[in-house]
């Protein structure tokens, strides 16, 4: 992993630093039909949380940026696909339009960047940019806690 190779140099330079990883909100909650994407984002959160624990007590911070929808050109991302990887997988026009609509109503990138910078400056592990999705995270954690057995009575 690139971070593991870079980390010794970051520690050696002695100036501290901050590592930011973008997990998306689906690093916390699952959306139907996007299993591989969800798994990658959950893995991203796990790596960053582990890294934060390993760097505790050092001047190197870690933040996990958990974004919702952002006004980006991600629906047009196939434009960046290298020919060496072959043709892009075709998606339905309906799926393309749904993603484009999701992006159009998202936050502007500069607002997301400002929230990310505030989180970095405050050394926050989790930086959530979209408060309107808080209930999704709360619901997930309530389901987890409800399923967790209580400790035996003393």
Name the strands of the widest sheet in spatial order.
1-2-3
Q: Can you name the CATH architecture of the domain at 16-74 and 88-126?
A: 3-Layer(aba) Sandwich
In the CATH scheme, what's the topology name of the domain at 16-74 and 88-126?
A: Rossmann fold
Report the principal-axis shape. Answer: globular
Oligomer type: single chain
Task: Give me the Rg, rounded.
Answer: 18 Å
Largest sheet, in brief, is: 3 strands, parallel
Measured as a percent range, the helix fraction is: 40-55%
At the first level of CATH, the class of the domain at 16-74 and 88-126 is: Alpha Beta
Strand content: 5-15%
Protein architecture, described:
The mean pLDDT is 88. It contains 5 helices and 3 strands, in the order αβαβααβα. The termini are far apart. It has a 3-stranded parallel β-sheet with strand order 1-2-3. It has a domain at 16-74 and 88-126: Rossmann fold. With 154 residues, the chain is mostly helical.
Tell me the layout of helices and strands.
Blueprint: H1 2-12, E1 17-22, H2 35-54, E2 60-66, H3 93-104, H4 109-121, E3 126-128, H5 134-147
Parallel strand pairs: 1-2, 2-3
